[in-house]
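A.,

Following up on our hallway conversation. Structure tokens first:
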């Protein structure tokens, strides 16, 4: 298969549905000498943390190649481009604005706008300035206030150039992977840390929302959450799976809409609890203009005496990063969130697959990825038909890039990157995306 098909009456084919591609600063930019160090620089420099011992010093060299990359984005015909801002590139250590860094992004935003591509800006996609980590990072409540200041400086500087701001990308990853199991930067491990970090990140989101609404009243302002729906193979495992769902998924969304953490918080020992101060839950539950949802896979759980839940190995078919391909979970995730919460308009801000791509005669025939996208586009369409207000979809990712703890070993792009030459080649999945968009 080399084309994507949606039913001819699909809402996704209407003019007002947004199709885009997404990236993140640390994963593509490089340009390390033009910014302050971040926690991922430090993590990469630590022995044994990154599968191929690589780092983000050069990545896709987007710092230098941004103009040709915008041409590339434009050639795909997308309506929108989701990028993130590197906090340590735009704010100096004393908290003042770094004009050189700000100008770097302003020229990108202006170039996108000149081509009629809507900029979707994420303020935090994991690259916390290292000096803030030195003060405790997300375990320190003060970092939430620093984030609010950063959001203020940036939104004032960018003016009305931005179509949509997301405060955070995937608080789950920053807090759980970064501060509880330590497989992401800053690599801190311990059940006493994960919930505390998550609370400060959600607080930072809530503190920044009114700033975004004030400084950028016309943009759609919200947050991006990731979900890995939880399943059980047997009735007996259902409770374990429900617990995991509260721990990994609902933990980050419920405070936004219900001003409360899931009920399992009442069964967690004190030392694992977040430090919730009076008024925090009201701050966190600021109204948002949109919710960004990232979906890749599901997880199956069984009960476990020590940990309550234990994840089972994913059944086939799996992608190159070992994640099961299970699009039905995408539809039911969207419909169930729609039942549980009063959702604002939803953007699918990430969806995609790592595949072991090869390039031959300047072609990447990634039909397995084409297939993944087809299944997941259908899954989104099904959710819309069932009444979920999904108004946009972003492919992750525009191009192959630094895949965090996996380094450059896993390729998620719809564009292939040859890291030796920095040559970009649109894969079959990207060509099919372009055709879907242009044939609307
Ligand atoms: C992140 C991306 C990442 C992708 C694939 C998401 O969790 O936002 O930065 O590359 O998943 O792992």
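Then the amino acids I'd put at each of the 440 positions:
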């Amino acid at each position: 298969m080399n084309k994507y098909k949606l039913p001819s009456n699909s809402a996704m084919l209407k003019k007002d549905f947004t199709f885009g591609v997404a990236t993140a600063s640390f994963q593509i930019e490089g340009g390390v000498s033009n910014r302050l160090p971040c926690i991922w620089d430090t993590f990469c420099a630590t022995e044994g943390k990154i599968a191929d011992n690589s780092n983000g010093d050069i990545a896709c060299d987007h710092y230098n190649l941004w103009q040709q990359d915008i041409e590339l984005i434009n050639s795909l015909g997308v309506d929108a481009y989701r990028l993130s801002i590197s906090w340590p590139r735009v704010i100096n250590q004393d908290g003042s604005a770094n004009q050189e860094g700000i100008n770097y992004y302003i020229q990108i935003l202006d170039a996108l706008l000149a081509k009629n591509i809507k900029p979707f800006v994420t303020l935090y996609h994991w690259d916390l300035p290292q000096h803030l980590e030195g003060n405790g990072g997300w375990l320190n409540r003060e970092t939430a206030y620093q984030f609010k200041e950063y959001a203020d400086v940036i939104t004032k500087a960018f003016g009305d150039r931005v179509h949509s701001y997301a405060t955070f990308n995937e608080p789950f990853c920053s807090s759980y992977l970064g501060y509880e199991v330590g497989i992401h930067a800053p690599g801190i491990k311990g059940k006493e840390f994960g919930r505390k970090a998550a609370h400060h990140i959600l607080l930072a989101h809530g503190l920044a929302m009114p700033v975004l609404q004030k400084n950028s009243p016309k943009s759609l302002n919200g947050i991006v959450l990731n979900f890995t729906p939880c399943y059980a193979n047997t009735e007996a495992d259902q409770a374990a799976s429900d617990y995991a769902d509260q721990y990994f998924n609902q933990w980050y969304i419920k405070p936004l809409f219900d001003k409360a953490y899931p009920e399992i918080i009442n069964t967690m020992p004190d030392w694992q609890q977040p430090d919730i101060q009076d008024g925090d839950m009201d701050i966190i539950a600021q109204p948002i203009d949109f919710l960004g949802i990232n979906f890749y896979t599901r997880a199956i759980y069984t009960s476990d005496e020590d940990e309550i839940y234990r994840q089972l190995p994913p059944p086939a078919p799996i992608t190159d990063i070992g994640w099961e391909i299970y699009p039905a979970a995408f539809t039911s995730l969207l419909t169930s969130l729609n039942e549980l919460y009063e959702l604002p308009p939803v953007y699918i801000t990430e969806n995609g697959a790592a595949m072991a791509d090869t390039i031959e005669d300047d072609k990447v025939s990634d039909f397995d990825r084409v297939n993944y996208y087809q299944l997941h586009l259908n899954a989104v369409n099904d959710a819309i038909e069932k009444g979920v207000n999904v108004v946009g979809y972003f492919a992750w990712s525009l191009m192959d890039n630094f895949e965090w703890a996996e380094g450059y070993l896993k390729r998620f792009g719809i564009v292939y990157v040859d890291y030796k030459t920095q040559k970009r080649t649109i894969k079959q999945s990207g060509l099919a995306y372009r055709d879907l968009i242009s044939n609307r």
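The chain is about 40% helix and 15% strand. Curious whether your intuition agrees with the design.

B.
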